[in-house]
Amino acid sequence: MKPRLPLELRIAWRYLFSKKRHAAVNLISSISVAGVAVASAVVVIALSVFNGFLQLAESRFSHLSAPVEIQASDSRFFKADSLLDAINAIPETGMVMPLLKSKAYADAEEGQMAVEILGTEPEWITLSGAANTIIDGTPIVADTLGATLGTISVGTAMQIGVRPADHLRLIVPRNRDRLNPGNIMGNFRTDSIIVAGVTRTGEDKLDASLVIVPISHLRRLLSADSSAASHIAVYPADRNVSERQLLSAVRNVLPEGFNALTIAQQNSESFKMIAIEKWVTFVLLAFILIVASFNILSTLVMLMIEKQSNMRVLRSMGMSERNIRNIFIWEGVLVSGAGCMAGAIAGILLVGCQMQWGWVKLSAAGIDPALLSISTYPVALSFEDLIAVLALASVTSFLASFVAVIVGRKKF
After folding, report:
1. Which helix (H) or strand (E) holds 298?
2. pLDDT number for residue 379
3. Could you say which residues of the chain have pLDDT below 50?
4. Is 198 within 8 Å of 164 (Cβ atoms)?
5. What span, in angstroms and rounded, lies between the C-alpha atoms of 81 and 38?
6. Rounded CA gap, 18 and 228, in Å?
7. Relative orientation angle of helices 296-306 and 308-316, to the nearest 10 degrees
8. Helix/strand/coil percentages in the chain, nearest 5
9. Please, which residues have CB within 8 angstroms of residue 390's CB and are 6 or more apart in sequence?
10. Can you say whether the dihedral through the CA atoms of 367, 374, 136, 105 is positive or negative?
11. What is the pLDDT of residues 299-328, one digit of tens each?
12. Cα-Cα-Cα-Cα dihedral of 309, 311, 312, 313, to 10°?
């Protein structure tokens, strides 16, 4: 037997679409639905913009960050041989390579600066996608017989005036056990590389002060072991292996004292900032949605006044005050739900149009649009965001309806 909806809900549904005797009731009801719809659409669009910037940041970091990266819990250097063998044996993994990260001081003819050095295998520059970010020169990281070739970020190139084919000297402190208080300069190791290419990802953190060199060169510069690494980059065997699957498989073979991190976890500060901005914006816009939902108060009170004769008939037929109260609570939920669904659908359509055609362009005062790394606002829909908007509208509409019923209970 087909289940039937509650009587109160069926009556509320009828009230929602029935023609009202007073035009003001219809007008106020339409304004309430429109207010909730506009507020819901704005929230969906705003959250989608932040999702788009999160995806954009992830795509930029993916040029220089592996899908999964392993590091020691205490951030120390470690011998990577046995760990590389264990990870290579996992079916979900494809390319696995050691990385060595350190800080140094870069010196060139036109300036000096502190830099972050990344030591990699020669094939990493192509595998990671960093080759696609080269804006000057060629994507080469190689330790040849004649010279060491490396790649630098655009921020490094601009700050110290270095271009491809220029020499760059790198200076790092010696190990503590080799320090000589009587010879200050002897406490530092120096070596030079030839700049082969300049990279720009569009992400400030990566573009500010990065120098990419062969890992063998950095090991010599740091007097480190021939198998020393500070991180291990892990790439999936194929596109069918998701980040979650790869992360789970890698964590299963990690010894104690090591962590496996996703791209978002490797660059947590940048991603946390965008996430915080997103949810602060959601809270602010939620107040607009709450105010719009509480417009239902006036709609329900006006409807109670108009339906007094109906309520007397229902009372004479044996319906309790509680049942009549539930009719108007359902009415408020339906009015708010209609507005919220209409707004969510409108938001989804507008976001879809932006994704397809990029109608809304990015602009900056005094800057040539051609120089911007992206020309349109990035957007991305999230099912979790839609659920959050619908849940907020549902709770708010129920509370507004309940308050309206309390205010107008004398009309029953």
Report:
1. helix 296-306
2. 93
3. 1, 183
4. yes
5. 59
6. 77
7. 60
8. 55, 20, 25
9. 340, 341, 344
10. positive
11. 787 888 888 888 888 888 888 888 888 888
12. 90
- Domain extents in the chain: 7-60+271-411, 68-265
Cα-based distances in Å from 218 to 137, 205, 225: 22, 21, 11
* One-letter amino acid for residue 223 of the chain: S
- Helix ranges (H only) for 62-123 are 81-88
146 class by beta-carbon count within 10 Å (0-12 exposed, 13-18 middle, 19+ buried): exposed
Hey, what are 377's tokens?
């606002």
**52 CB-side CA count, 13 A:** 18
Q: What count of other Cβ atoms lies within 10 Å of the Cβ of residue 321?
A: 12
Q: How many CB atoms lie within 10 A of CB 103?
A: 11
Q: Could you tell me which of 239, 254, 255 has the C-alpha nearest to residue 67? A: 239
Q: Give me the pLDDT at residue 370, please.
A: 57
CA-wise closest residue to 104 among 191, 216, 180:
191
Provide the Cα torsion 113, 114, 116, 120; round to 10°: 60
- Beta pairing partners, 170: 106, 191
| CA 210/CA 212 separation, integer angstroms | 7
Contact (Cβ atoms closer than 8 angstroms) between residue 238 and residue 94: yes
Token pair for 312: 């007397």
CA-to-CA dists, residue 43 to 48, 63, 293, angstroms: 8, 31, 14
> Token digits for 251?
């964590």
Please write the tens of the pLDDT for every residue from 102-144: 999 999 988 899 999 999 998 888 888 888 899 999 988 888 8
Contacts of 60 (CB under 8 A, 6+ apart): 201, 202, 203, 206
Containing 217, the helix (H) or strand (E) segment is: helix 215-222
d(CA 259, CA 349): 41
**Where would I find the beta strands (DSSP E) of 129-187?**
134-137, 142-143, 148-153, 167-173
The CA distance from 200 to 137, in Å, is 12
Residues 337, 358: Cα–Cα separation, whole Å? 30
pLDDT recorded at residue 187: 65
Q: Does the CA dihedral 31-37-40-44 come out positive or negative?
A: negative
CA-closest candidate to residue 210, choices 131, 152, 149 = 152
| Phi, psi (degrees; rounded to nearest 5) at 255 | -75, 170
CB atoms within 10 A of CB 315: 14
